[in-house]
Amino acid sequence: MVPRGPRRAIRGTHGRVVGYRKAPHPSGSGWCLTPDPESTTVVRTIVEEVHAGLSLIAIARKLNETGALVPRDRHAQLQGRPLGGRRHGRDFERFRWTSGTLSKVLRSPSLMGHRVHQRQTVQTVHDATGAPVLIGPPLLTESAFHLLQAVLLARSNGTRRKRWTANALLTGVAHCAGCKGRMYFALRKGYPYGDYGCRATARGDVCPAPSSVRSDWLEEYVLSHYHQTAPAEAEVTREALLRDGVRVTVAKGRKGGDAKRMTGPDTSRLAFTMQAPPAVRPEN
Ligand SMILES: [Zn+2]
Question: What residues does the Recombinase domain cover (predicted)?
Fold first, then answer.
């Protein structure tokens, strides 16, 4: 009887492990994972650039410029399937690197050759000494991996990143004039208001003129225009604005500006439109 070792074949991983590709198992039966030189080079470059102090956004931009494939596209290419596809309601010829993609890649224990399920090392796959059974030669040693995690963590704690949220009055209403994309809200620390800003970089896009505007100014502007045509409601909700097809487009402001800018928005940057005049709703 042929002994069946636990690593005889890997069948369940779909081969999508960053830095590796599926290859026929040397035993002649099933598949195993073997380093994929192309993505290995990409991963090594990314790690070097993190240590050189580049931000994930800067690294993503460089990768998009050089045309390096994201793991999902590289996997599709190796499988002979078309690149890109549909995502967030848009069609992509190929997917773009974002800081989110990079963060996922850089935090995956698969870089150490660990088998990973839902971003965690699979704890049951250990050999007699308790060490994880490797899916293939590691791209990073354990200590290099842990050093990388420490660098990433220190950076995310050190930078006071804005927390953008999709849960604001004008989400889906406010759009950036530069890229036509949605603007998102972030609170300013220590202020009673925040900003709506273009989030093209988070989508992996480059916006030619990313706009940003104080949230209280934009909300006031939109509500005053809305009230000119819509019957007054006790409290205007986001749902009401979306239902009535309200849209505001914000163009990038000039740098600097004069004292007037401290009292309100430069309304020449703003364009308010409403698709359908709202139906008059009965009182109560
Ligand atoms: Zn934009």
Answer: 17-158
Give the pLDDT band (50/70/90) at residue 1: very low
How far is ligand 1, taken at its centre, from the CA of residue 235, in Å? 29
Cα of 201 vs centre of ligand 1, distance in Å, is: 9
C-alpha of residue 173 to centroid of ligand 1, in Å: 14
User: Which fold, 20-158?
Assistant: Hect, E3 ligase catalytic domain fold (3.90.1750)
Which pLDDT band, with edges at 50, 70 and 90, does 5 fall under? very low
Q: Which two tokens stand for residue 157?
A: 């704690």
Q: How far is the CA of 46 from the centre of ligand 1 (A)?
A: 26
Burial class of residue 272 (count of CB atoms within 10 Å of its CB; 0-12, 13-18, 19+): middle
Q: What is the pLDDT of residues 177-193, one digit of tens each?
A: 999 999 999 988 888 88
Does 270 score more than 80 pLDDT?
yes
Q: How far is the CA of 208 from the centre of ligand 1 (A)?
A: 7
State the distance from the centre of ligand 1 to the C-alpha of 255, rounded, in angstroms: 16
Q: With contact defined as beta carbons under 8 Å apart, do 31 and 52 qualify? A: no
